[in-house]
Amino acid sequence: MLRTHTCGELSKANIGKEVALAGWVHTRRDHGDVIFIDMRDTYGVTQLVFDPKRNSAMHGKAHELRSEYVIQAKGIVQKRPAGMENRKLPTGEIEIFVKALEILNPSLTPPFLVDEALAVSDEMRLRYRYIDLRRPHMQKNMRLRHKIQSSMRAFLEKHNFTEIETPFLTRSTPEGARDYLVPSRPNPGKFYALPQSPQLFKQILMVSGFDRYFQIARCFRDEDLRKDRQPEFTQLDVEMSFVTQDDIFELSEGLMKKIFKECMNVSIGTPFKRLTYIEAMERFGTDKPDTRFGMELVKLTEALRETKFNIFRKNLDKDGCIYAMNAKGHGKISRSKLDGLILKAKEYGAGGLAYFKCEKNGLTSNIDKFFEKKELDSIKSLTRAEDSDLILIVSDKKNVALTVLGTLRLDIAKESGLIDTNKNEILWITDFPLFKYSEEEKRWVSEHHPFTRCREEDIKLLDTEDLGRIRALSYDLVINGAEIASGSIRIHEEGLQQKIFKAIGFKKEEITRRFGFLIEAFRYGAPPHGGIAFGLDRFTTIFTKSESIRDVIAFPKTQKAICPLTGAPSEASDAQLKELGIKKSKGGQ
Ligand code: ASP
Q1: Cβ(255) to ligand 1 under 6 A?
Q2: pLDDT of 361
Q3: Model-level pTM?
């Protein structure tokens, strides 16, 4: 080894000891006579001291050192002079008096310093990711990610799971995104799809008799990127045979409990709370509610059924709904802030946003004259409004009213610092609809994926027009308002699977072409099974309290799916394309 110790471990106990350290020049402070170098490795920072009076040759050499040079320093551990200690550093009471210094590798001037306090653009951070990753918080994030993965593996192994890898070069898996395609050279004109998830393979592993499977799997989805999305991401993928939804909940809760304890030293209570999809939507306006704060939505449709207020009247006559939210304590909101909320509501898709301020004498608003006293009293009591509260109301199609208020609820809570970020609220959302109607495609589509089973009592609805009412045996795990895991009990019979495919408009040939192999497998003794997948990146983002999932992925891509470090994606040469039998389109790249 080039070192006897790391840069994070020496203390008073080592005073007088001869040591060798290896690492990077973090900072250099030249005090004219004495030079101090903070030397860094992944374990911490240790101060080196070069005193010309005690060793002028070494002091001369220290002049050559620059930021990010890789060095080896040999010397004696000594106590820092009184008053020079740094209590914030674990090594802050000692320093190394250097007797031998070797520059193992110089460095160009780095594009930015390895300093947490510096704001560096995302583009620069990704372009010089190896420097960004040297920053202590990134080192911490990556190590925590590793720890989470190790905890997951240990837990699942203890519960008799087998880790099995499934292919990257495969067929399309319908998880709702576009596929990444890879051309096959030996099969001109044919393409593999990178897996959007290992879904089909994990089900086939159940048919293969592997009772309990898991994989820390990479998934690829070509979709528009947002803060919490990457074209490739990692999930802990789990599948089990002969289980019910409750078995999967119990296993997942045990896993979560262990990870929170081991990785965060936080004890969480189990079983987790459960909310049905409908309840979550009605109370919080979203299927991933942040329940760390209140401000729940309230239905006003019945109370205002006879309203003469024109806008509400028109909506109610068109089967619309009226929902409200009590923004507690916001009654003194300024006009401009209120206008801001109205604008946001419109941005989120509502026709408008009505409001009432709750004052000593009752509810006041620019529209209060259109309401009867009885109606105002109901609004006040249903929203439990008190002096200084602000009631926000949306009247629209049910889904629009709920989601707009749900989004405003979060905006207001974030802006007014209402969320206790030290709290963890974990809950299951159950009973999702099996299908949702896509206005774009003019057909029903799967809410989860088409291998999801529905409640036995709802199977009969498959033969009706009422597909929207079928409840799936699917579930999401939500932590602090983020969807962390998602899964379902699966279909294991050919007949039911065919029916579901048909309901979402897949033609017979398409079913055979895309999923024939799965349907065939179901004919050879498929056990009842179900599973779940945990988004590792999002999970680690929550644990590290990071802003974006990019902070917990070593080499992520930009919003435009570019890797600034490697320059990927890049052009293929004419020879490569020819070999693959691919022609560039005219004017194309
Ligand atoms: N394959 C699903 C997904 O990636 C998870 C599951 O149903 O297990 O979202």
Answers
A1: no
A2: 81
A3: 0.93
